[in-house]
Amino acid sequence: MALSKIIVVSQKGGVGKSTIAANLAAWFQVTQGRKTILLDYDPHGSSSTWLSDATQLGVTIQHHPIDESGSRRWLLTARTLLRRADEAHEVVIADLTWTAHTDPEFLLGFDLVLVPSGVSEIELAATTGFIDRNAWVFDQRNRDLNAVPTLVICPSRIKSEQVLDHAFGEARFPVPFMLAPPMFDEVLVRDLFRKNFMIFMDGSVKENFLRFADGIRRADELHHQRKTLGGLVKPSAKSLSSYNSVLSKHLSQRRPEGSAVSGTNLRSNDSISPAQKRQAAAGVSGKTPPPLSPALAKFLSTIQVDKN
Protein backbone atom coordinates (compact mmCIF):
# COMPACT_ATOMS: atom_id res chain seq x y z
CA MET A 1 0.00 0.00 0.00
CA ALA A 2 1.32 3.41 -0.99
CA LEU A 3 2.56 5.84 1.63
CA SER A 4 -0.17 8.34 2.53
CA LYS A 5 0.84 11.88 3.49
CA ILE A 6 -2.01 14.04 4.74
CA ILE A 7 -1.83 17.56 6.15
CA VAL A 8 -4.69 19.26 8.01
CA VAL A 9 -4.25 22.99 7.68
CA SER A 10 -6.19 26.10 8.65
CA GLN A 11 -5.31 29.72 9.24
CA LYS A 12 -8.09 30.16 11.78
CA GLY A 13 -8.48 28.40 15.10
CA GLY A 14 -11.66 26.80 16.33
CA VAL A 15 -12.56 24.92 13.14
CA GLY A 16 -11.69 21.45 14.39
CA LYS A 17 -8.26 21.12 12.78
CA SER A 18 -6.56 19.35 15.68
CA THR A 19 -9.64 17.21 16.33
CA ILE A 20 -9.49 15.95 12.76
CA ALA A 21 -5.73 15.37 12.86
CA ALA A 22 -5.70 13.44 16.14
CA ASN A 23 -8.72 11.30 15.35
CA LEU A 24 -7.62 10.54 11.78
CA ALA A 25 -4.27 9.34 13.13
CA ALA A 26 -6.10 7.07 15.58
CA TRP A 27 -8.37 5.77 12.81
CA PHE A 28 -5.54 4.89 10.42
CA GLN A 29 -3.54 3.19 13.18
CA VAL A 30 -6.36 1.18 14.78
CA THR A 31 -9.02 0.66 12.12
CA GLN A 32 -6.79 0.42 9.04
CA GLY A 33 -3.83 -1.23 10.76
CA ARG A 34 -1.34 1.14 9.13
CA LYS A 35 1.70 2.42 11.02
CA THR A 36 0.92 6.09 11.57
CA ILE A 37 2.84 9.14 12.72
CA LEU A 38 1.43 12.51 13.76
CA LEU A 39 3.63 15.52 12.99
CA ASP A 40 2.26 18.39 15.04
CA TYR A 41 3.69 21.67 13.75
CA ASP A 42 1.18 23.75 15.72
CA PRO A 43 2.71 25.84 18.54
CA HIS A 44 -0.15 24.87 20.88
CA GLY A 45 0.38 21.15 20.26
CA SER A 46 -3.29 20.25 20.71
CA SER A 47 -3.34 17.17 18.49
CA SER A 48 -0.08 15.72 19.86
CA THR A 49 -1.25 16.39 23.43
CA TRP A 50 -4.55 14.63 22.67
CA LEU A 51 -2.77 11.51 21.38
CA SER A 52 -0.19 11.54 24.18
CA ASP A 53 -2.62 11.84 27.08
CA ALA A 54 -5.47 9.65 25.82
CA THR A 55 -5.45 5.86 25.39
CA GLN A 56 -2.14 4.82 23.84
CA LEU A 57 -2.76 3.39 20.37
CA GLY A 58 0.74 2.97 18.96
CA VAL A 59 0.71 6.19 16.93
CA THR A 60 4.13 7.84 16.76
CA ILE A 61 3.77 11.37 18.11
CA GLN A 62 6.10 14.26 17.35
CA HIS A 63 5.57 17.89 18.29
CA HIS A 64 7.79 20.25 16.31
CA PRO A 65 6.65 23.88 16.61
CA ILE A 66 8.08 25.52 13.53
CA ASP A 67 10.49 28.42 13.91
CA GLU A 68 9.01 31.13 11.72
CA SER A 69 11.98 33.49 11.85
CA GLY A 70 12.44 32.89 8.13
CA SER A 71 10.19 31.18 5.57
CA ARG A 72 13.02 29.36 3.75
CA ARG A 73 14.49 28.12 7.00
CA TRP A 74 11.02 26.99 8.03
CA LEU A 75 10.60 25.11 4.77
CA LEU A 76 13.91 23.26 5.10
CA THR A 77 13.14 22.21 8.68
CA ALA A 78 9.61 21.08 7.88
CA ARG A 79 10.73 19.08 4.84
CA THR A 80 13.43 17.34 6.84
CA LEU A 81 10.95 16.28 9.50
CA LEU A 82 8.52 15.05 6.87
CA ARG A 83 11.20 13.04 5.05
CA ARG A 84 12.26 11.30 8.26
CA ALA A 85 8.64 10.47 9.05
CA ASP A 86 8.19 8.95 5.58
CA GLU A 87 10.97 6.45 6.07
CA ALA A 88 9.42 4.44 8.91
CA HIS A 89 5.65 4.89 8.55
CA GLU A 90 2.77 4.10 6.21
CA VAL A 91 0.64 7.13 7.05
CA VAL A 92 1.78 10.65 7.95
CA ILE A 93 -0.76 13.05 9.45
CA ALA A 94 0.46 16.64 9.85
CA ASP A 95 -1.26 19.39 11.83
CA LEU A 96 -0.38 22.95 10.81
CA THR A 97 -1.76 26.39 11.58
CA TRP A 98 -1.19 28.57 8.52
CA THR A 99 0.43 31.97 9.00
CA ALA A 100 1.82 34.69 6.78
CA HIS A 101 5.28 33.14 7.22
CA THR A 102 4.30 29.67 6.02
CA ASP A 103 5.83 28.71 2.69
CA PRO A 104 3.17 27.23 0.36
CA GLU A 105 5.80 24.98 -1.23
CA PHE A 106 5.59 22.78 1.84
CA LEU A 107 2.14 21.61 0.73
CA LEU A 108 3.69 20.03 -2.36
CA GLY A 109 5.18 17.31 -0.15
CA PHE A 110 1.74 15.90 0.71
CA ASP A 111 -0.85 13.79 -1.08
CA LEU A 112 -3.92 15.36 0.52
CA VAL A 113 -4.37 18.88 1.88
CA LEU A 114 -7.37 18.90 4.20
CA VAL A 115 -8.88 22.34 4.86
CA PRO A 116 -11.54 22.33 7.61
CA SER A 117 -14.19 25.04 7.32
CA GLY A 118 -17.19 26.08 9.31
CA VAL A 119 -20.01 28.23 7.94
CA SER A 120 -19.58 31.52 9.80
CA GLU A 121 -18.55 34.51 7.71
CA ILE A 122 -15.13 34.62 9.39
CA GLU A 123 -14.48 30.93 8.74
CA LEU A 124 -15.71 31.11 5.16
CA ALA A 125 -13.52 34.13 4.46
CA ALA A 126 -10.48 32.35 5.91
CA THR A 127 -11.13 29.21 3.86
CA THR A 128 -11.76 30.90 0.55
CA GLY A 129 -8.90 33.35 1.10
CA PHE A 130 -6.45 30.54 1.82
CA ILE A 131 -7.42 28.67 -1.34
CA ASP A 132 -7.43 31.77 -3.54
CA ARG A 133 -3.95 32.81 -2.39
CA ASN A 134 -2.48 29.32 -2.79
CA ALA A 135 -4.39 28.13 -5.85
CA TRP A 136 -1.15 27.60 -7.79
CA VAL A 137 -0.27 24.69 -5.47
CA PHE A 138 -3.29 22.71 -6.72
CA ASP A 139 -3.16 23.82 -10.36
CA GLN A 140 -2.56 20.65 -12.36
CA ARG A 141 -1.57 22.63 -15.45
CA ASN A 142 1.56 24.10 -13.91
CA ARG A 143 3.62 21.01 -13.08
CA ASP A 144 3.98 17.27 -13.17
CA LEU A 145 0.77 15.73 -11.84
CA ASN A 146 2.83 13.63 -9.43
CA ALA A 147 3.75 16.83 -7.60
CA VAL A 148 0.21 18.20 -7.26
CA PRO A 149 -1.57 17.52 -3.96
CA THR A 150 -5.31 16.93 -3.84
CA LEU A 151 -7.35 19.60 -2.08
CA VAL A 152 -10.08 18.26 0.23
CA ILE A 153 -12.57 20.69 1.77
CA CYS A 154 -13.77 19.39 5.15
CA PRO A 155 -17.00 20.95 6.47
CA SER A 156 -16.32 21.00 10.20
CA ARG A 157 -18.41 21.61 13.31
CA ILE A 158 -21.55 21.79 11.19
CA LYS A 159 -24.84 22.05 13.09
CA SER A 160 -27.86 20.08 11.95
CA GLU A 161 -29.93 23.27 11.55
CA GLN A 162 -27.45 24.41 8.88
CA VAL A 163 -28.61 21.65 6.53
CA LEU A 164 -30.35 23.32 3.58
CA ASP A 165 -31.94 22.21 0.33
CA HIS A 166 -29.17 23.11 -2.11
CA ALA A 167 -26.34 20.72 -2.91
CA PHE A 168 -23.14 21.12 -0.89
CA GLY A 169 -21.34 19.31 -3.70
CA GLU A 170 -21.90 22.27 -6.02
CA ALA A 171 -19.48 24.42 -4.02
CA ARG A 172 -16.98 26.24 -6.25
CA PHE A 173 -13.29 26.99 -6.00
CA PRO A 174 -10.78 28.14 -8.64
CA VAL A 175 -9.02 24.73 -8.49
CA PRO A 176 -10.14 21.09 -8.53
CA PHE A 177 -11.12 19.78 -5.11
CA MET A 178 -12.90 16.99 -3.28
CA LEU A 179 -15.56 17.43 -0.65
CA ALA A 180 -15.43 15.33 2.52
CA PRO A 181 -18.48 14.33 4.57
CA PRO A 182 -18.98 16.89 7.35
CA MET A 183 -17.82 16.69 10.93
CA PHE A 184 -20.93 17.59 12.91
CA ASP A 185 -20.72 19.80 15.97
CA GLU A 186 -21.48 17.51 18.92
CA VAL A 187 -20.87 18.35 22.57
CA LEU A 188 -19.50 14.87 23.28
CA VAL A 189 -16.63 15.45 20.86
CA ARG A 190 -15.36 18.44 22.83
CA ASP A 191 -15.30 16.31 25.97
CA LEU A 192 -13.03 13.71 24.36
CA PHE A 193 -9.91 15.89 24.31
CA ARG A 194 -6.98 14.10 25.99
CA LYS A 195 -9.34 11.30 27.08
CA ASN A 196 -10.60 9.22 24.18
CA PHE A 197 -11.19 9.06 20.41
CA MET A 198 -14.29 9.09 18.26
CA ILE A 199 -13.66 5.57 16.95
CA PHE A 200 -14.30 4.22 20.45
CA MET A 201 -17.57 6.11 20.98
CA ASP A 202 -21.09 4.83 20.40
CA GLY A 203 -23.91 6.31 18.38
CA SER A 204 -23.78 9.31 16.06
CA VAL A 205 -20.34 10.54 17.16
CA LYS A 206 -18.66 7.37 15.93
CA GLU A 207 -20.91 6.92 12.89
CA ASN A 208 -20.34 10.47 11.62
CA PHE A 209 -16.59 10.25 12.10
CA LEU A 210 -16.32 6.86 10.37
CA ARG A 211 -18.19 8.34 7.42
CA PHE A 212 -15.77 11.26 7.34
CA ALA A 213 -12.67 9.05 7.69
CA ASP A 214 -13.83 6.75 4.90
CA GLY A 215 -14.26 9.81 2.68
CA ILE A 216 -10.63 10.75 3.34
CA ARG A 217 -9.56 7.18 2.53
CA ARG A 218 -11.41 7.41 -0.80
CA ALA A 219 -9.75 10.75 -1.57
CA ASP A 220 -6.35 9.19 -0.88
CA GLU A 221 -7.10 6.27 -3.19
CA LEU A 222 -8.19 8.59 -6.00
CA HIS A 223 -5.08 10.69 -5.53
CA HIS A 224 -2.77 7.68 -5.86
CA GLN A 225 -4.72 6.42 -8.88
CA ARG A 226 -4.13 9.77 -10.54
CA LYS A 227 -0.40 9.55 -9.84
CA THR A 228 -0.22 5.97 -11.08
CA LEU A 229 -2.11 6.65 -14.30
CA GLY A 230 -0.39 9.97 -14.91
CA GLY A 231 -3.59 11.94 -15.32
CA LEU A 232 -6.59 13.28 -13.47
CA VAL A 233 -8.90 10.49 -12.37
CA LYS A 234 -12.53 11.49 -12.36
CA PRO A 235 -15.53 9.40 -11.30
CA SER A 236 -17.66 8.17 -14.21
CA ALA A 237 -20.67 9.95 -12.75
CA LYS A 238 -20.82 12.88 -10.37
CA SER A 239 -22.22 11.95 -6.97
CA LEU A 240 -25.07 13.74 -5.29
CA SER A 241 -24.11 15.28 -2.02
CA SER A 242 -25.72 13.70 1.01
CA TYR A 243 -25.03 16.82 3.03
CA ASN A 244 -25.96 20.40 2.29
CA SER A 245 -24.77 23.58 3.92
CA VAL A 246 -24.61 27.33 4.00
CA LEU A 247 -21.05 26.94 2.70
CA SER A 248 -22.15 26.03 -0.84
CA LYS A 249 -24.43 29.05 -1.05
CA HIS A 250 -21.61 31.35 0.00
CA LEU A 251 -19.19 29.84 -2.51
CA SER A 252 -21.63 29.78 -5.43
CA GLN A 253 -22.45 33.45 -4.88
CA ARG A 254 -18.79 34.48 -4.94
CA ARG A 255 -17.80 32.34 -7.94
CA PRO A 256 -16.51 34.38 -10.91
CA GLU A 257 -18.38 33.27 -14.02
CA GLY A 258 -16.52 30.48 -15.81
CA SER A 259 -13.50 30.53 -13.49
CA ALA A 260 -14.13 27.74 -11.05
CA VAL A 261 -14.82 24.04 -10.87
CA SER A 262 -17.15 22.05 -8.68
CA GLY A 263 -15.97 19.41 -6.28
CA THR A 264 -16.08 15.64 -6.30
CA ASN A 265 -18.21 14.50 -3.37
CA LEU A 266 -16.76 11.71 -1.26
CA ARG A 267 -19.90 10.64 0.56
CA SER A 268 -22.56 9.29 -1.73
CA ASN A 269 -22.51 6.51 -4.31
CA ASP A 270 -25.84 7.65 -5.76
CA SER A 271 -24.86 8.62 -9.31
CA ILE A 272 -26.97 10.78 -11.62
CA SER A 273 -27.38 11.09 -15.35
CA PRO A 274 -25.92 13.94 -17.45
CA ALA A 275 -29.38 15.53 -17.57
CA GLN A 276 -29.60 15.42 -13.78
CA LYS A 277 -26.15 16.97 -13.55
CA ARG A 278 -27.39 19.97 -15.54
CA GLN A 279 -30.42 20.17 -13.28
CA ALA A 280 -28.17 20.04 -10.21
CA ALA A 281 -26.05 22.89 -11.54
CA ALA A 282 -29.20 24.90 -12.19
CA GLY A 283 -30.34 24.22 -8.64
CA VAL A 284 -27.38 26.12 -7.22
CA SER A 285 -28.38 29.26 -9.10
CA GLY A 286 -31.84 29.23 -7.53
CA LYS A 287 -33.84 26.89 -9.78
CA THR A 288 -35.59 23.75 -8.64
CA PRO A 289 -33.01 21.14 -7.57
CA PRO A 290 -33.19 17.57 -8.93
CA PRO A 291 -35.14 15.03 -6.87
CA LEU A 292 -33.13 13.00 -4.40
CA SER A 293 -32.86 9.27 -4.74
CA PRO A 294 -35.04 7.33 -2.23
CA ALA A 295 -31.98 6.17 -0.27
CA LEU A 296 -30.56 9.68 -0.11
CA ALA A 297 -33.89 11.22 0.86
CA LYS A 298 -34.26 8.67 3.66
CA PHE A 299 -30.81 9.52 4.99
CA LEU A 300 -31.39 13.26 4.88
CA SER A 301 -34.66 12.85 6.74
CA THR A 302 -32.73 11.45 9.69
CA ILE A 303 -30.64 14.62 10.08
CA GLN A 304 -33.03 17.30 8.78
CA VAL A 305 -34.26 19.59 11.57
CA ASP A 306 -38.00 19.92 12.07
CA LYS A 307 -38.73 23.50 11.01
CA ASN A 308 -42.37 23.55 12.13
Structural account:
- With 308 residues, this protein is of the alpha/beta class.
- It has a single domain (4-229), classed as 3-Layer(aba) Sandwich (Rossmann fold), CATH 3.40.50.300.
- The protein is 37% helix and 16% strand.
- The chain has nine helices and eleven strands.
- The protein has helices at 17-30, 46-53, 71-88, 121-133, 187-190, 204-229, 246-254, 274-284, 294-303; strands spanning 4-10, 36-40, 60-63, 91-97, 112-117, 150-158, 172-173, 178-179, 183-184, 261-262, 264-265.
- Strands 1, 2, 3, 4, 5, 6, 8, 9 and 11 form a nine-stranded parallel sheet that branches. Strands 7-10 form a two-stranded antiparallel ribbon.
- Strand 2 (36-40), helix 2 (46-53) and strand 3 form a beta-alpha-beta unit.
- Residues 164-171, 232-259 and 268-308 have low confidence and may be disordered.
Name some characteristics of this structure.
16% strand; Rossmann fold; alpha/beta; disordered C terminus; 308 residues; nine-stranded parallel beta sheet; two-stranded antiparallel sheet; 37% helix
Mean pLDDT: 74
By helix and strand content, what is the structural category? alpha/beta
Q: Considering DSSP H and I runs of 4 or more, what fraction of the residues is helical? A: 25-40%
Computed over alpha carbons, the radius of gyration is 19 Å
Query: What name does CATH use for the topology?
Result: Rossmann fold
The biggest sheet amounts to: 9 strands, parallel
Shape: globular
Detail the poorly predicted runs. Answer: 164-171, 232-259, 268-308
The number of distinct β-strands equals 11
Number of domains as seen in the coordinates: 1
Task: List the total number of helices.
Answer: 9
Task: Give the name of the CATH superfamily.
Answer: P-loop containing nucleotide triphosphate hydrolases
Named CATH architecture? 3-Layer(aba) Sandwich
CATH top-level class: Alpha Beta
State which percent range the strand residues make up: 15-25%
Q: Secondary-structure element sequence?
A: EHEHEHEEHEEEEHHHEEHH
Distance between the termini: 50 Å
